[in-house]
Amino acid sequence: MPETRQSSPALLRGSIPSGGGWVSHGYHLGSHSHPEGQLVYAAAGALATTTERGTWVAPANQVTWTPPGFEHSHRFYGRTDVRLVAIPADQCDALVAHPSVFAVSPLLREALLALTDRPEIRPSAHSRLRGVVIDELAEAPEQSLHLPEARDDRLHAVTRLLHDNPGSTATLAELARASGASERTLSRLFHSELGMSFHRWRTILRVQHALVHLTNARSVTDTAMECGWSNPSSFIDAFTAVVGQTPGVYQAHLRHATA
């Protein structure tokens, strides 16, 4: 994509945010909301969208969705080619009523790029393209890179320790002692509050951090070690199960998109 496309935090702060631009690694847009729905797609790079319900991470084969009225923030990883598409409030009922991440099909990708790459020349052209986007999203599977946040103080203490050190190999029993709760209580809280096991939650946390490392051109082996896997093979298996492609394929796509 030519460098003449705008590099624009101002774009992200627009009253009706839509369009495309490059943002630098680590750029953070603080908590805000919109009267319309919003799709945010990283055609290159990766992004995290955070709401009170947790954090959703989207690499270049996924798109984040935030319905109208939800307070949310964004953080971008790697030099990111960010695309923003506003969905009018009266069209949002066709999509899920909660923030989510969706797989991006080839057709959906091209529609998102067309909406954000060029001005509207023919009347209602963008409206028709948004219809294609909504139809594709209605059929697209929700992805599993959502990391819910804890409300219970004991569980929050454990998840904060892991956020601070995602490569930690501490067992649930060891974390329980650090939080003042029993292992059984923590296991129950992971299921009742976060809707998943301790192992699943930590795996998604590690994959989220791995996406950041890979986006910054770290090697697969170094990423595996830094994010807590004992060997690259187990990392590749876990990453592929969550993201839907191997770390090597993900980095190859990043290089192609940036080029």
TrEMBL record:
This is AraC family transcriptional regulator. Keywords: DNA-binding, Transcription, Transcription regulation. The keyword Protein biosynthesis does not apply. It holds the Pfam family HTH_18. Residues 156-253 form the HTH araC/xylS-type domain.
